[in-house]
Amino acid sequence: MKLYRRKYGSGPPLIILHALYGSSDNWVHIAKRLSGSFTCYLPDQRNHGRSPHSSEHNYPVMSNDIDELAVELQLGKFFLAGHSMGGKTAIHYALKHPEKLSGLLVADISPFTTDTQYHRACKQHINILSTIIDSDLRGLSTRTEVESLIGDKIKSGKIRDFIMKNLERKPDSTLGWKLNARALFDNLSHIMEGIERPGTDTEPVTGFPVIFLKGELSDYLPDTDFRDIQRIFPSAELIKVRQAGHWIQADSPDKVAEGLLRLLG
Q: What domains sit in the chain, N to C, each tagged with a CATH number?
């Protein structure tokens, strides 16, 4: 799938992948900070932003999308980073194509999923996606009207603001959603999937630096998972970002930029 992408800066290539409900513009401020050190490519993942829609949405196909992008851009070896869903996509890519990476950064997501995490997150995502799917935007002409429509079901102002970034005005001046909520809803079990924890026969992935960033106020990357992460990525380093929640690039952009620059060092 040919993904829409933005490009900033010059230097070694770096692809940064956004989270569920996100898009490339979530990372523009970080890319501009890094423009003197990296050539940053910010794709919209499938079913998000300006990229094509598809009924398929799982980590193998999203990993293939990134490989197609890297081949199209003739990147050779490159740095890869991702947040949340984008972090899981990056992990899948690193496991499949370690020889193509110069470094990996995963922002506030564990590769693994427990039943408790799975069910709690699924409940929240079902509410968000159902709200988007059921929202009838006909006759609405302003963002304020749409926010009022979804506000009864999406109580968190921070989450609501993030979802509202997916609203667009179409050529006929009507309002619509950029993301493919139906496909995301139908594939939610795939989005929530984690990789298997390492066993005695797990082959470690080596040859490039690996950094996991954890928001201090977030529970998406439990400390207890890091031992198993290091069994897969022996060189992995865990960096905790103080006073940051799950939306780590918004809460602490300087620390995220520092982590990405650390891959070069």
A: 5-112+194-264 (3.40.50.1820), 116-190 (no CATH)
